[in-house]
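BUG-376 | component: ligand-complex export | severity: low

The export step for flavin-adenine dinucleotide jobs runs without errors, but we want the raw record kept on the ticket for reference. Input record follows.
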Amino acid sequence: MESGFLLGSFRELLPELKEKREKVKALGLWAPQAPEKLGGMGLSLSEFAPVSEELGRTPLGHYVFNSQAPDAGNMEILIQHGTGEQKKAWLEPLVRGEIRSCFSMTEPEFPGSNPTWMSTTAVKEGSDYVINGHKWFTSAADGATFAIVMAITNPDAAREHHRASQIIVPTNTPGFRRARNIPVMGHVGEDYTSHAEIFYENCRVPQQNLLGEEGKGFAIAQQRLGPGRIHHCMRWIGICERAFELMCGRAAKREISPGQPLASRQIVQEWIAESRAEINAARFLVLDAAHKIDREGSHAARQEISLIKFFVANVLQKVLDRAIQVHGALGLTDDLLLSHWYRQERGARIYDGPDEVHKAVVARMILKEYSVNIST
Ligand SMILES: Cc1cc2nc3c(=O)[nH]c(=O)nc-3n(C[C@H](O)[C@H](O)[C@H](O)COP(=O)(O)OP(=O)(O)OC[C@H]3O[C@@H](n4cnc5c(N)ncnc54)[C@H](O)[C@@H]3O)c2cc1C
């Protein structure tokens, strides 16, 4: 199945994936991160960490267990902020795996790294919101049943953090126009693996579709991104482990002259040792952040979350790069997962906040203790 995926197909795999999803359900392992009362396993973040790592070893793991982004993040905010009606209409079928969703915040004309600044608006008219705007990188929009859209509802709010709201928009609403799936390096680009450019053109939804309070869109996005970022980090450690095994296996077997495996070379030993140390460090940092979120909530763990977001993304890239180097030309082929992940996960240093922003968050929080206040 993985080889079909590497050949660039996702939709063709759907019947087989459906079968596997049914099997996971029958085994009682469905949606491990979701609450038990909704049909999940109810694992805490710390409990989910080793599970997510295991699922991350294959690009299809999280999808098969219904714990993939962006659905897992959308489930969380619907659990925390959804009304009874919204939960029934959107959350419950999402957790059951009957529908998919997407999260539509980033815009081509505005910096995604500053989520308080955007142009999409939602204006009240009668009992509706009328949404106009242009979004892109709305992951998994192709085939999604609904989008959670960030739009400015309160342009005159004193603080920019209080101007946007989150609104649930069914994707079959007139005025929701998915213009294209953007071709993105290393991403298959269809169905759940797509990243769409979307126009909202007088897209009208009832005001009951507001998620949480009006003007709280930024705060809810931060709540969503906290656990979302840690989910990515857990998954990346799974990728690291698989790449590491491939690297060690190849170094042990590939002879560079008779009787001389690549592993006999000190530079390869250095890559192996450094990768082991960095992956272990990444795992401990992720578990530390997970424990803190479990104990105190994601707001209290902002520093830990930002720290792992850039640290683990960079460990991932180093490990993948070394594993490819050890494989030589073979590492560049699409016969192995390494080249897929190398291309696909370059985005890890950008999505859910670029490295530079997370480093600034960490430094700012530390420097506050030294009475240095740096504005954003
Ligand atoms: C694979 C993928 C999936 C995505 N999925 C979604 C999704 O589902 N929904 C959604 O809404 N968005 C999604 N995004 C968008 C993503 O969140 C943004 O790309 C990200 O927030 C960065 O915004 P930007 O691309 O506009 O870059 P910009 O904000 O234009 O930043 C460009 C670069 O400037 C630098 N920079 C920015 N700010 C600072 C700063 N303060 N200090 C120093 N340097 C800085 C960084 O190097 C950054 O890479 C996705 C992106 C990718 C790549």
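Assignee comment: Attached the raw record above. Residues 146 and 170 are 4 Å apart (CA to CA).
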